[in-house]
Specification:
alpha/beta, Rossmann fold, 5 strands, binds adenosine-5'-triphosphate, single chain, five-stranded parallel β-sheet
Length: 281
């Protein structure tokens, strides 16, 4: 670990003041090593993450109401699905509350934009994962003018108040924005069109969305600038190298879980007495 990360991932990746236009999506902030080392480390750190998550889950079973919520945002092909499969896939699924947010259903459209989000929040002791999130309501909604400007403009502050409330109620937010370059996105979309096992990941609309890339960059910049708070900062992850992005998210989650300073819950029984009873049984 020390060999590869010379500073906490949270410090290396925090978005404060970052301009997306200047971001090198092939960079590996904070990581010192090569791809082979990174991949080996990912396996090792996945086990560490699983151990930390198990402690959170165990404490949740004992009444601890705290939770950790990973919020994943990124353009199509940025690798959100891979993070869910490979990073979240390394922990016990019982302890994961996963939710993906697509185009709102008819029912969801009848409600405030945070309605469906509130319903999907992680329970105490759980690692929550949002594959897309309330941020879509200031990203796609802004870029495509799905609501009038005064509506989406008001959402930034609403989101800050909402996240403040979550944090005050014991949820640690780990907000991650993954960025690939426009060329890398083209390569990934091309692959989806050339491999039968990847067709299912492709939607024709993904190509149309590429024309809105600059508008999305502006919308992403706005969430970093307006919703990167002390209590719920944004982390920006250059994601051209999938292994790096997965490792970076793994590290961010380990750091968030370790911050909770969890120990194994104390027994509600006398282990020595129970052992004696067991031997006699
Ligand atoms: P992904 O692209 O995340 O892998 P997908 O292609 O399978 O997922 P869905 O998950 O069904 O598609 O939906 C994702 C789409 O839903 C995205 O285009 C996203 O912009 C859109 N979406 C998500 N939230 C909203 C929202 N609040 N309003 C409008 N569109 C939204």
């Amino acid at each position: 670990m020390a060999e590869y990360w010379k500073e906490p991932a949270r410090r290396a990746l925090r978005a404060d003041g970052l301009r997306i236009a200047d971001l090198d999506t092939s960079a590996r902030p904070g990581f010192h090593g090569d791809k082979a080392g990174g991949k080996r480390l990912l396996v090792e750190r996945g086990r560490v993450l699983a151990g930390e998550q198990e402690k959170l889950y165990a404490n949740g079973r004992s009444g601890d109401r705290r939770s950790v919520l990973l919020v994943l945002q990124g353009m199509d092909t940025a690798g959100k699905g891979g993070i869910v499969r490979h990073v979240i896939g390394s922990v016990d699924p019982q302890g994961v509350d996963h939710a993906a947010f697509g185009v709102p259903t008819e029912e969801e459209k009848q409600h405030h934009f945070l309605w469906r989000i509130r319903r999907a929040l992680p329970r105490g002791g759980q690692l929550g994962v949002f594959d897309r999130s309330h941020y879509e309501d200031v990203l796609v909604a802004r870029v495509h003018g799905l609501v009038p400007e005064e509506v989406w403009q008001g959402r930034y502050e609403e989101i800050n108040r909402f996240e403040r409330e979550l944090v005050d109620n014991g949820t640690t937010l780990v907000k991650v924005a993954l960025f690939v370059s426009l060329d890398e996105q083209k390569a990934r979309l091309r692959e989806r069109l050339q491999r039968p096992d990847k067709y299912w990941k492709f939607s024709p609309g993904d190509i149309d969305e590429r024309a809105y890339w600059p508008a999305y960059q502006d919308a992403y910049q706005a969430i970093l600038d307006r919703n990167g708070t002390e209590y719920a900062p944004w982390y920006v992850i250059p994601a051209d190298a999938k292994w790096y992005a997965r490792l970076a998210v793994t590290e961010l989650l380990i750091e968030a879980l370790r911050d909770l300073d969890l120990s194994w819950p104390a027994p509600t029984f006398d282990p020595a007495a129970e052992l004696r009873r067991l031997e006699r049984s």
